[in-house]
Amino acid sequence: xxxxxxxxxxxxxxKGANNLHSVQAALLVTISIIFLLSILLIPGCVRxxxxxxxxxxxxxxxxxxxxxxxxxxxxACFSEKDKITQYAWTFGDGGSASGTKAQHVFTAPxxxxxxxxxxxxxxxxxxxxxxxxxxxxxxxxMVYPITQGNNNTIQLCKTIFVGYLRNSLYAVPVGW
Length: 176
Known about the structure:
single chain, alpha+beta, Immunoglobulin-like, four-stranded antiparallel β-sheet, 1 helix, 10 strands, disordered N terminus
């Protein structure tokens, strides 16, 4: 028996090997492109699908003083296509809260960075910060005489906050 190797047969085997290497190389390039696109585009696709949430809030009063409760409201936050599931507040003095609305008491004058971070049901986040300026003032204990109906007078001790804001002196009860 004689086995003949022709040039065509060898060429055909070489083409097959090259085709196999070409397919492997193309597959590797395709996988690399898909991986790269997934890294670059999936966050963008998530934003495209669910939208980017917008965080915002208001607080009142606008110029609070120490020991005055400050109310924070994030009900104007929105997400076009996704439900907001978490509202996380930090107040710059170690305090924190959660929920659409929060209340906080600053105990010292100064500037505090208040941060709100919202999270949607699909993990999208947005944050916003504002500075709350807490006006300086003085906390003092006061004694108030109170006369009752049968002419009995009692003394009521309470703490008040005395402050100076916009050229006016004011006093506000603390913890009544």
